Amino acid sequence: MENTSPLTLVVPEHILDPLLASANCAKLDQALENLIETAKTPDGRLNLASVKILPIVLDLIRCQISSSNHVLVTLSLKLLRNLCAGEILNQNCFIEEDGVDVVARAFDSISFDTNFGDEIIEIIRFGLELLGNVCGAGEEHQAAVWFRLFPVVFKDIARVRVKKISDVLSMVLYSCCNGSNEIMRQLCEVQGLQIVAEIVTTASRDGLGEDWLLGLLAKICLEESFFSPLFFMLSTAGIVEKNNNLKETDDIFTLENEFLLSILYESLNKKRNELNVSKEFALSVFGILKRVVTVVDFLSRGQSKLPTGTPAVDVLGYSINILRDICAQDRVKLRSEESVTIVDLLLSSGLLDLLIDFLRELEPPSTIKKSFPQESTSVQLKVCPYKGFRRDIVAVIANCLYGMKHVQDAIRQKDAILLLLQQCVTDDDNEFLRECGIWAVRNLLEGNEENQKIVAELEIQGSADVPALTELGFRMELDPHTRRAKLVNISPR
Questions:
Q1: Which pTM value belongs to this model?
Q2: DSSP letter string over 25-41?
Q3: How far is CA 215 from the centre of its chain?
């Protein structure tokens, strides 16, 4: 068989001959292409495993790592990737032949400090996809990949600002951690979170590709308790490391902060009934909410919905929306044996006070504002920093009120019933405010005679105009004994 490809001149015969014979081809590059196609099918992978082609391909990479011609390395990694896609014989052989070290050495040969072209990007991508396929074989394979590449090689790769690399790196990290408490623990320490922060930085600039990063961040932030250190790693001022502990610095919110919150919000929406959100995560998000309100400009009216392009405003908005969904989820998943819920923890930390203060300090909804004459005042009321801000606040309050009598009573004790009634209107800057307001007031009145009595008195006095009371499931009646108006619940049980 004549070897006409110039690539064959630098390949030893004991590697070259079996590859050409297996592919029935005279040129090495074409032989690798043919084998790549063969390895796309289960039968093809099994047949190539029976002739032990994988060790030969590893030897080919070993002899080509120092070469400036990356074609053979790229094709070899692509072939190995296909060979290890669900075929246990090849996956085991890859570990036995120290294939992880071969891939790591291929990565080490790359200079990550300079810009590089498509060939190098393909080497990194195919190498990572190969490792991800190998991890699918179980704990031994996961450990072999993790302990050879963590943290140095993973960190170098994570700093490459290329979307398709950061996407597949997320897949490898997720695959390594899946089912391994030890690897998950290491990923959630300082060096591991630094790698994740680099991936988030790339995704915040180039967009989110596949769902691997969503899954990875759901594990780290929602199920575990490492959201806060990761969040502050992404701040401009960031965090400082002292004795392997993370210390937060100044409140400077960034595009990366906003992006992290936005994809965690997306995760909560996608897997609302699957994720068990930790109490630590909920309290951390509330802590960020309390901090971000000190830097947001509430005197400049927002002109757009989320995301607005202003990091602090977006951090504010996504924090509120995440708390809204957590409170809704917590009410649905409430179990009788749980004496303290996430909602209870948030309320005891001051969530309701903060939200009520927000509503008090905001200018009235546009419908109410238009019905009153303009009056000069020395107090400048706040405005919504993004479209939907008021609605989102009301939605969180509504979810906290659902089935919670002590929250209903707290609204009354804070003299905030009329304030909530005023949210049952349309507003130019808050789509669906009326619907959220009606839901909040219904939850406020349901089963609470004291609150119903106050609303009835406000109606009689003319202090509250809520034509949507029937939509709430209530109607006004005159008590024949006291001759006073009262609200009667007419909703079906």
A1: 0.86
A2: -SSHHHHHHHHHHHTTS
A3: 8
